[in-house]
Amino acid sequence: MLDPLHQFAVSPILNINVGGFDLSFTNSSLAVMVAFLMIATIFALGVRSRRLIPDRMQASVEVVYFVIADLIDSNVGRAGRKYFPLVFSVFLFVLFGNIVGLIPHMFTFTSHIVVTFSLALIVFIFVTVLGFVLHGIKFLKLFAPDGVPKFIMPLLIFVELVSYLIRPISLAIRLFANMMAGHTMIKVFAGLLGLFGSWLVPVIVPVNMLMTGLELFVATLQAYIFAVLTCVYLNDAVHLH
Is the pTM of this model over 0.90? Predict the structure, then answer.
């Protein structure tokens, strides 16, 4: 019970085996479902009234909408508005995935590299395909910009290609590492109560509350950073900088 890494173990809730494939409903599946239901409920409540003077729920939804819309305009320009659904969906999935993990006894699916890498890979593949669709073979100029001396070109192409291919890895590790580290620290401090007794409650509880608040800030920040980098990658594909 004091193992801080036990919280990251995927465990089945409902065992399902179809044709030799394990399709069990796990704690990770439950967390994804809870995150989806939270998003659907909040936005359904936020847009149902559509008042000229919004209430708190509608105002909250509108703030999130305009923050992402402004983020796209700032990084991609008007040409990027058609990709708003992608950036908005990615932001909400990461944000609520991080927040669900802060609920006691819930699973943080964004603390697993397979989840964050899959999401980063989806963005990477979409941006790459988009680049070739918009520019054709000229998209390769992203790795060999004009005006570079020929003797530097081979080295530059290698560096640009490696930095481009490593994007999904760095994007995935950044989110996974931050979520895993923060939740581990909260669990470690909470576990001190089991090791040293209740006399540490006046110290541990305030510290854990502070760390939970900090982790909520980090959860929001990491979702925003994921959305920002998605916009930066979209900008490269759309404008071929």
Answer: no
